[in-house]
Write a structure and sequence with these properties.
Helix content is 22%, strand content 34%. It is of the alpha+beta class. It has one domain (6-89). Strands 1-4-3-2 form a four-stranded mixed beta sheet, with no helix packed on it. A hairpin with a 4-residue loop joins strand 2 and strand 3. The longest helix has 20 residues, at 70-89. It is extended. The model has no long low-confidence stretch (mean pLDDT 75).
């Protein structure tokens, strides 16, 4: 069940989600970097389909970010995390 990850190159922070874009649950995040970009791989880890033991990770989306935008991305992620935690407190 190997599927190539979708690649999104973020050239600027004017990000728009296309209508009809499907959401995907992720329980796996890997962050890596090179000298020219930061790479976020999102996916899920679950039991192997063809085996009774072990698990496998499937990468479903990859986001590639030039270093000059990383601080903005971190700021957006922090705001989303804070909003999520606040919503949990209000339940």
């Amino acid at each position: 069940m190997s599927k190539e990850p979708q690649v999104l190159n973020i050239d600027d922070m004017n990000i728009k989600i296309k209508p009809g874009t499907e959401a995907c649950y992720s329980n796996f995040l890997r962050v890596s970097f090179t000298s020219t970009e930061f790479i976020f791989d999102f996916g899920f880890t679950g039991p192997k389909i063809d085996s009774s033991s072990g698990s496998e990770t499937t990468i479903t989306n990859r986001i590639i970010i030039p270093p000059e935008y990383l601080n903005q991305v971190i700021e957006v992620l922090q705001k989303q995390k804070d909003a999520y935690e606040k919503s949990l407190e209000n339940e």
